[in-house]
Structure formats: structure tokens, C-alpha cells
Amino acid sequence: MALKDAFVLTYDRMCRYQGEWHTERKLIFPANVMLESKDEKLLRIELLQHKNVFNLRQPVLKMTTEEEKLLRFLCGKTRHIEMSRGVIRNGITQVKEGPLKGMESQICKIDRHKRLAKLCAQEGKNIKYVSVGLEIVKKSI
After folding, report:
1. How far apart are CA 44 and CA 89, in angstroms?
2. Average per-residue pLDDT in the chain?
3. Alpha helices, DSSP H, located in the chain
């Protein structure tokens, strides 16, 4: 059997309802299930043998090594990205706690209203984005 593990990746994000902020767990890739295998070709063959169980209208995509490294670093063994917190000083983001600490250079965009950061995973000409929770607790000039 080629399939080692199947899982989904999640992240924390803040949502405001009923007048308060709540931490919610969301799927990083809502329409995708991650399949871990040592033998990609054998896994594809096994999936095709069970196509009546799996809806394979969508292609099976291989994650690049850069994407895999980024997600393994952010998630660790939990397969979940915790909420990060930071400040903005003189236009420069400084993450004080959480998995984004030290990764400020990979943050492409911050949405302070939604408390989200978009990270860039780039390999060659392909750029992919991953949204993760980032709360900016203070902004100073």
C-alpha cells in the first residue's frame, strides 16, 4: 500500500461575531486532502483502482519541495498553524510570537481587518499563496 497518511491542514484565524473576537479553526486548502506517500506512481495507480470511491475529477497535484518545507515548518507535527501575533514599527512587520516569527520576509500581504497574512511559496516562476492567522496588536510610526 502506497498511502502512508491522509490529512487536512488547518490554521487559526480570528472572527468577530456577537460583539467579541473568537478564534476559529479553518482549512488551509478547503477543497483538498493531503496524501502522504513514499511512492507517487504507486499511489496514483492505487487511487485509479478505487476511482469509484474517490472523486478523481480533480487532478492529483504534487506539492513542491518548497511548499512542503514551508508547511512542515509552520505546522510541525500537529498539521495545524497556530495564530501569530506581532507589531508594525515604521512600516516593518515584526512577529513577536507564533509560527510566523522569523518569517517576516515571506509575508506578502497583511489584512489587519481580517487578521490574516498571505505567505508566498515560490519555486521558479510559480508563486502560490497560503493564508495564515496574524494579529497585529500595535502599529507605530
Report:
1. 49
2. 88
3. 40-49, 65-75
Mean predicted confidence (pLDDT) in 40-51: 84
Residue 82 DSSP label:
P
Give the C-alpha distances (Å, rounded to integers) separating 103 from 97, 108, 120, 124. Answer: 11, 11, 11, 20
What average pLDDT does this structure show over 67-88?
92
Q: Is-contact 132 74, C-beta < 8 A?
A: yes
Full-model pTM: 0.82
On whether the CB atoms of residues 86 and 94 are closer than 8 A, the answer is yes
List the one residue out of 12, 32, 39, 35 whose CA is nearest residue 135.
12
Q: How far is CA 53 from the centre of its chain?
A: 27
CA distances in angstroms from 12 to 29, 98, 130, 132, listed in the order given: 13, 11, 13, 7
The model's pLDDT over 106-134, given as tens digits with 9 standing for 90+, comes to 999 999 999 999 998 666 666 778 899 99
